Amino acid sequence: MATVLESTQIRGSKKGGGGRVATEASDTLRSIQVAEILDLVSEGPIQGLVNGLKSVYLDGVALQNADGSSNFENVSFAWTAGTQGQAALDGFDMVQNEVAVGVKVTHAVPIERVILAGSNAVRMTIGVPQLSFQDPSNGDMVGNKVEFAIELDSNGGGFVEVYRTTLDGKTMSHYQRAVTLDLTGAAPWTLRVRRITADSTTSNSVNALYWDSYTEIQKAKLRYPNSAVYGLRVNSQNFSRVPTRGYDILGRVVQVPSNYNPLTRAYTGIWDGTFVPAWTNNPAWVFYDLLTHPRYGLGQYVQAAVINKWRLYQIGQYCDELVPDGRSGQEPRFTCNLYLQTQAEAFKVLQDLVAIFRGILLYGNGVVDVVQDAPSDALSLFTPANVIDGKFVYQGASERTRHSGVIVYWNNLANQGKREPELYQEPDLVARYGVRNLELSPLGTWSRGQAVRLAKWALYSEDAESEVVNFGVGSEGALVPLGRVFKITDPAVSGERLGGRIHAATSSVVTLDKPVTLMQGEAYTLTVATADPEDPFNLTHEARTVTSAQAGGMALTLATPFSTAPAAQSIWLLESTAVVATTWRCIGVREVPGENRFEVTGVAHSPDKYLRIEQGIHLDPKPISRLKNGAVKPTNLQITESVYTASGTARSRINASWLPGAPGQYYRVSWRYRGGVWSVLADTSAQNVELPDMLPGTIDVAVRAVDGLGRVSPPLEGSYDVGGKSTTGEVSALQLSITSTGIQASWSAQTGADGATWVETELRRGASFAAGDVVFKGRALSYNLGWLHWGNLTVWAVHRDSSGNVSAPVSASLMIETPAQPTLTATADMSVIKLAWTDSKTTQPVSHYLIRKGAAWDVATSLGKIDGLSITLLDILPGIYKFWAVAVDMGGNESSPGWVSVTVASPISAAMAILNAGLTDSHNAINDLGTEVGALAAKIDAPDIGLRALESERSMLALALQQANEAYAALDLSTLLQTAKTNQVLRDAGIVVDPATGQIHITGLDQTANRVSQVKADFDAVASTVVLSAQRITQLQTDLINAQLDPTGAAVVAGVVVQINQVQASLDAANAQIALRATSAVVGDHYLQLQTAVNTLSSQGQELLAVAQNINALQNDIAGANSRLQVLENSATSTVELVAARFSRLGDQGLAEVQDANFIAALLKGTVDKESAAKQLAYAKTELTASVDKLGEASAQQYTLLISQVGQVQAAVDAEASTRATALGAEATARQTLAIKQQTDTDTLSAGLTNEASLRTTAVSAEATQRQALAVKQQNDHNTVAAAVQTESAARTTATQATASQLTQIQASFNSQVAAISQRLAVVVDANGQVVAAYTLALNANGHIVGVRLDNNGTVGNYVVQADKFAFFIPGSSVAIPLFVAGLVRGVNTFGINGQLMVDGTIYARALAVDRLSAITANLGTVTAGTLNMDSDGAGGWASIQSFNKWWDGVNGWAMARHPDGRTFVSFIAGACRLRLSSWNDCELAFPGFRATQNGVEINQLNVIDTLQLNGNAVTVPVGADGHEQIPTLTVTMTQPGAIFVTVMANAIAGNGSEASLYLSAACNGVAGREVGVSMGGGYSGSATAFSKFDVGVGNHVVGGFWRIADGSRTLGSTSTFAIGVKR
Predict the structure, then answer these.
(1) Of 1399, 1155, 941, which is closest to residue 346 (Cα–Cα)?
(2) Quick one: average pLDDT of 1389-1401?
(3) Phi-psi category of 68—alpha, beta or left, where left has phi over 0 and alpha has psi -120 to 50?
(4) Given strand 209-219, what is the order of strands in its sheet?
C-alpha cells in the first residue's frame, strides 16, 4: 500500500518569507490479485486431512488454530479424496495457463499475441507502473489517465474491438486491470492491445501502459479421477507471493488383511488370505500396495499370485508389535510415513522400502519374497556329515571398516516433517575405534525412537555379526533360502564332533552314525532337523534333553520323546552347557554349474542382539569351543573290503575306519599298494575313508590326526590283503504264480556285493538246469511265461555277476491241470432253449467254451465258441436234443466234454393261425408307415411340406389301426382263451382282452402307433437342427470374413476356416445320412424285418414283440443321427467360441518377467581386539661341568642360555660346547642356537638359526661333521607358514675306508602344502677297490617327487631321471619346441622327437604308427597310419588298397580306391555280410535279416536288433503278431523304466439285416487305453485301429487289446498287435 502524504511543507533557502506548500493527492487506484492453486497431493484414494483445516499450512502457519479460529481471511479450501467417481472441486471450474508478456504498449505500436485452439476464454492483465501528473506551476501531484482498447481477430477474419476503457486516477505503485473475454469464432485468435491516449512526452506526466500477461482459460469441471487434489484460493492482501503449502494427511488407502484393524493394530482370528481397503502406515502393507498397484506400482508386471503374502503377514505382525520408544512410552516397532514423489528405479525403491523393517527383497522360483532380520529359529543344521569335504571356510571383516556411532536422518513431525539428524554412539566402540560415524537416511522414518533402534541395529550387527562362513553342500543347498537362520557344528571350531546323520531312531532313543562322549557335569540337548515330504522347504526341528548314552556313545536316550520318530539319515546336532553350535543367517546360495552342488554363504547371527536393541539387555556369549591341546593319535584302525561294479566289472572297495583320539580333530590318511610309494588323501573330518578300485594284493594304511591349529599326530598304521569277488549268491524266493496275463516266475533281488555285481538272471524250463531250455536272460525280478500246456512245470534259475560267477541253480514247480468238465443245465420255453454251465477254471483261466449239438461229442454239430457261461438258442423245433460243452483254457488245454439233454414242446398252432389272420391289416398299415416315413426323411430340407404330409400320414395310420382293432373285435377267441395254457401264451405275446369293452388289444401295435408319433417328433427335431446348424455356420463364416484382424491372427483364422469347412462337410454328410436312413436303405430294411417278425409270429407267439423292438431300433437310429448332428453343431459353436477367446487374448499384455535380483547385504565386520598385557623378561644362565671318572675318561661341558622377552616378542641364544677324551679317542662338539619369536592374538612368527660342529677321533677312525639349520615360521588361527634351510657336511676316515658327504635341503610349507628340494653329494673309497661317486637331486611337492641321480663306480655309470616328462630344448631357439620328449601321453609311455631320426640298423617294434611312410618295398605285419597317400597309377588311373583278387563287386574281400576325377568307393564283402560305399551313392550295408541301402532299411526277421538307439533313448525290439477272432497278446521286456507304445487292429463284418459297431482299445498288463469305434451297415465290414502309450517300470509286460461289438450281430475277422518299448 502506498503511503499518502497529506501535506508536505517545502521550505526554501532564501531569506525573507516562506513559499507555497505543494500537495500530493491520495492514491485512488488499487489492484487486488487472487491466486487459485490446485495441488495434486497423491494418487488416490487417501484417508484425508488428519485434523481438518488445522492440518493445512500456508507458509508454515495453520489455516485454523486449535480452538477453530482462522489465521487467514479470504482463503477458501476444497479437496477430493482421489476416488474413481469423485465429483469436481467446487469453485475450481477453470483450467488456466498464464503467459507473461511484459511489453510496453505505445500509441504508435500496438501489441499482438496469438492464442491457438484449446481455450474458450482469455483473461488479459493490463498495468501501469505509475499513474500521476505533477502540475509544473505549483508542484501538486495529482492523478492522470490513459485510454486503451482490446481487439480480437478470429482465424484471420479481421480485428474487432471487444473492449475499451480508461484508467483514470492516481497510483504511485504498480496497478493492474484484468479483463476477461470470451473467445468466439474459430481458432486461432489474435489479441491486440492498442493505446488510444497519446504517449507522454514530458516527465511530469507519467502514464506508461504495459501488457503484463494473459491467461488462457478452459472452462471445464474436471474430476481428476484417482487423484487426491487440494484447491486453494488466496488474494494478495494476505500474501505477497504464492504461499508454500503443507498438508498433514493420512495418505493412501491400501489393501490390508481382512482380519486386521489398522487403528488398533490388532489381528483377529485366522487370516483367510483376502484383503480389504484401509489406511495404514504398516510398512509391510505399504510395500504390498506399491508392488501390486497397476498405475503407480508394478501391478502390470507383478501378479499378486506370485507374492508371498503369508510372509508379509508375519512381517506385518512383527512391525505392529509395541516396543519402548525411549521416552517411557511404547510405539510400533516399524512404521512407514512416506511421501514418495520422485521417480527412481523400481527395484531400488522397493528395496529401500523393505529396508524400513530390516528386510531384503528376493525374487526366485517365480515368487516375490521378503526376508526380514527378525528373531527366528534355526531351521537348517549343517555338520561335516552334510557338507562337502566336511570343511567350513571362515572370514572376518577388517577393523578399519568398523564404526563407533551412527547418524540417522529422520523426519520430525513436530517440526513440520523437516529432516533432523540423530546421533547414537557406543562408548566402548568409541574407545576401541575412535569416532567413526556411519550415516543412514532411511525412508519413511518419522519416529525418533525408530531412528535410534535403527542405529543400534546397525552398530550391534556390525560388532557381533562380523564373521562370514562359506561351505559346499549337495542338493540340500537348494532348500536354504536367503535369510534363513541355520546352525553349524564344526569340529575344527568346537574341538569335537557334535553333529552327523541319524542311523536309526525311535521317538525316545536315537542311534547316531558315530559315537559321542558325554562329559560329566554337562547337560546335553539333541536337536534333529526334519523336512515335510510334501514341501521340502518346510523344515522343522525338535530339541530334546539327553539323559544318557549307550552302545559306546552310539545311542542317546531322551528325557522327553520326539513327537514322531526321526527318519534315518536326518541331521542331528548335539549341544551342551559347555559347547554350543554357532548360529548364522544365509546371505547367499550359488549353484556350481555342472557339479550338482551349491555354495552357501552365511553371516554370523547373534539372537541376543534384539534384546540389546529394544530392551538394552546385554547377554554374555555362549562358549563354542573346547580346543586346548595338540592333536591326539587316533585308535582302533579297522580295514574292511566290499565289492561294487564299475563299467560292468566287479571292483573292490577298501574302507578304513578308526576311533578319534580326541574330539574336534580332522584326519590325514595315506596308503600304499604292495610296498610302493605312499599316496596322501585329502584331509577329512570323517572317521573313515574309502579306497575304490583296489586290485588284489596287500595295502598299507596310515592315519594321522590334525587338530584345529594344524598340529599332526603320530600315524596309526595297519595292513590288509585285498581278495576280490569269486562267488555270487543263489536265487532266493523263486516262485511260480498265476497272474491275469500268464504264469509268472518271480524272485527276490540280491543284496550287498551280490546285488552290486548282478548282471543278469537266467531261467530254464525242464527236468534239470543243464537239460532245460532257456526261456529268459536279463536284469529283472520277474518273467511272464505266458499260458502253458498241462503237466508238471519246473523252472530253474541262476544269477550271473559281472565277474562271470554263476550261482547254484534253484527250482520251483507248478502242476498245470486241464480245465474241469463243465456241468450243463438246460431250460426250454416253447422254441427257446437256454443252456448254462459251471465255470471250469482250474490252474489257468478258461479262454472259451466249445458248444456242440448232437448224439455224441465227436459227431455233434458245432454251435461256436462262447466266452461266457450261457447261451440262448432260438427257433428250435419240437423234439429231444443233446448239447455238449468243452472248456478250453488260455493255454489251449481242453476239458473232457460235459452234456445235457432237453425236450422242446409243440407250439399252439391254432392260436397262431387266428393271430395271423388278425394281423394282416396291421401288417399292411405298417408297410404303409414305412413308405411314408421314407418319404418324410427325404423332406428334411423342406420342413414345412414334410410337416403337412406327416399330419396326413398320421391320420392314415390312425385309420389303419382302428380297422385293425375292429377286425380283432370280430374274432371269436373265447373258446381259445378258455384254456389256461393258451391264455398264458397269448398274454406272453402281448394279446389281451379288455374286460370292460371286450376289445382285443395287441401291445406291439399300440406301441407302434406311439413310436411312429415319436418318429415324427424326432424327424422334426432333426430338420430344425439342420436348419439351425446351417444358419450358425453361415453366420460364423460371415463374422470371420468381416473381422478386422492383425497379422498375428492370420494363422489362427486359417485354422478356424479349415475347422469350419470340416464341420460344414460333416453336417452335409449327416443330412445325407439321415435322408438315406429314412428311405429304403434303413426304413425299408426295418419293415422287411417287421414283415419277417409278423410271419414268424404266426407260428411262434414269442416274436410279436420284435415289431416294437424294430420300430424302437428305427427310433434309435433317428435319435442317434440327431445326436451326431447335435455334436457337429456343438463342435461348430465351440469353434466360434474358441476363435473369440483366441482373438480376445491377442490384445492382452503379457506379464513381463521380473528381473531376478540376486544380492547380498554386505556387512562390514571385524574381530575384537583383545587387551594385551605388556611384560618384560630377561634371563641368563651359564653352567660349567667337568669330570674324570675312574676309568680315565675325562669330559667337560659349558652350557649358556640367554633369553629376553618384551610382551609377546622374545629372543633366545642357546650355546653348548663339550669335550671328551678317552683312552681310545677324543671328541669335541660345539652347538649354537639363535631363536626369535613374536606372538600376537592372531599370528605367531618365529625364526631360528642352529650351527653345530663336531670333531671325533678314535683309535681306528677320524670324523668331522658340521650342520647348519635356518628356520622361520608364522602361525595364526587359519594358516601355518614355515620355511627352513638345512646344510650338513661330514668327512670320516677309518683304516679301510674314506667317505665324504654333503647334504643341503630347503623346505617351505603352507598349512598342509609342503615343497622341498634336497641335494646330496657323496664319495666312498675303500681298501677293497671300491670307488663310488654319487649325486642326487630330489624335488618334492606334497609327496610327488621328481629328480636326478648320477653315480659312477669306475666301471658303470648311471644317469637316472625320475619325472613325468623329460625334454631337451635347443639353446637360443626362438620357438619353445623340445628336441625330444619322454613321458606319459594319455597314460602311455611315449618318446617323441622333433626332427629326424637317423637309424643305421634295424628298428624292432610290435606296431608302427606313422603319418607318412616311404619305402621301396615293405613287408608289414601291423600298420597304423594317420594318412595313406596312394598315387593314381593303377588300372584306369585308379589308386587302391585291396585284398587279393578283389575289386568293386561280387568277390569276397575288401577294396578301397580313388580316381583322380574324384570318384571313390569302398567295398567289403564276406559272404552274406557286405559294406559298399561309393561317391555315386551306390551304398549298401547288409547281413542276415538286415539290409540298408540308399533307398531304405529292410529288417526281414525278428530279434535281429537287440537295442536301437533313437535320439539317445534305448528302444526295445518291435514285436508283433497276427490273430483271428481274438486279439493276440505279446510280452515286452523292459530293463529300464519307460513307456510301451501298443497298436492293435481288427476288422469285423456285421450280420445281414443288422447294423453293428466295433469298439477296440489297446491294453497293457490288463489296463485298457483309449477306445475307438467304427460303425458297419448290415452285411458290410469295418476295421478299427487303436493306439495307446503306457508308462511302465522294469520287468515283463503283457500287451494286447480289448474289443466289443454293439448294436447287432457280427463276425470278428483278422486281428493284429504291434508294440515297441522306449526306455527313459
Answers:
(1) 1155
(2) 76
(3) left
(4) 94-105, 209-219, 121-128, 175-182
**Residue 1440: Cβ-neighbour burial (10 angstroms; 0-12, 13-18, 19+):** middle
Please state the length of the chain: 1624
Contact 331, 449 (CB under 8 A): yes
CB neighbours (10 Å) of residue 1399?
7
Between β-strands 468-473 and 1581-1592, what pairing exists: parallel, antiparallel or unpaired?
unpaired
Place of cell 478258461: 846
In tens, the pLDDT along 948-983 reads: 544 555 565 556 556 545 544 444 433 333 334 444
Regarding beta strands 437-440 and 405-412, do their DSSP bridges make them parallel or antiparallel, or are they unpaired? parallel
CA angle, residues 451, 312, 376, in degrees to nearest 5: 75
Bridge partner residues of 1505 (DSSP): none
**Cα–Cα dist 1552/359, whole Å:** 82
The set of cell numbers assigned to 1188 is 674324570
All three cell numbers of 627, joined, read: 580346543
Q: How far apart are CA 949 and CA 1071, in angstroms?
A: 20
Residue 938 has pLDDT above 50, yes or no: yes
pLDDT above 80: residue 1415: no
Axis-axis angle for helices 309-320, 283-292 (nearest 10): 150
pLDDT one-digit tens code per residue, 1164-1175: 223 233 333 333
Sign of CA dihedral 626, 627, 629, 634: positive
Please give the full DSSP string across 706-751, using - where no structure is assigned.
Answer: E-TT--BPPPEEEEEEE------PPP-S-EEEE-SSSEEEE-PPP-
Distance of CA 947 to the CA centre of its chain: 65
**Can you give the pLDDT at residue 968?**
44
Angstrom distance (rounded) from CA 113 to CA 834: 114
Q: Which stretch, 265-279, 514-528, 1025-1039, has highest mean pLDDT?
A: 265-279
Average pLDDT, the chain: 77
List Cα–Cα distances, 976 to 912, 914, 972, 1100, in angstroms.
11, 9, 8, 16
Confidence of residue 674 (pLDDT cuts 50, 70, 90): confident
Residue 566: name the closest of 507, 482, 519, 622 by CA: 507
Q: Which regions of 44-182 does DSSP assign to beta strands (E)?
A: 46-49, 56-58, 61-62, 76-79, 94-105, 111-115, 121-128, 132-134, 141-142, 144-154, 159-169, 175-182
Instruction: Convert the pLDDT of each residue in 1273-1285 to its tens digit.
Output: 666 655 677 777 7
**Cα separation of 150 and 195, whole Å?**
9
Position 1248 scores a pLDDT of: 63
CA dihedral 921, 924, 930, 932 (to 10 degrees): -90
Distance CA 178, CA 36 (A): 15
Q: Give me the torsion for CA of 957, 961, 962, 968, rounded to 10°.
A: 160
CA-closest candidate to residue 148, choices 102, 211, 201, 100? 211
Are 392 and 490 contacting, i.e. CB atoms less than 8 angstroms apart?
yes
pLDDT at 1081 over 60: no
Q: Distance between CA atoms of 660 and 681, rounded to whole angstroms?
A: 18
Radius of gyration of the chain (CA): 55
Phi first, then psi, for residue 989 (nearest 5°) are -80, -5
Other C-beta atoms within 10 Å of 596: how many? 10
Question: 801-854: per-residue pLDDT in tens?
Answer: 877 789 999 999 999 999 999 999 999 887 889 999 999 999 999 999 999 999
Q: Which three cell numbers stand for residue 1447?
A: 575289386
252/1389 Cα distance (integer angstroms) = 80
DSSP-H helix ranges across 627-722: none
Amino acid at 620: D
| Residue owning grid cell 401295435 | 1005
Residue 1201, pLDDT score: 62
What is the model's pTM? 0.42
- CB contact at 8 A, 915 and 1098: yes
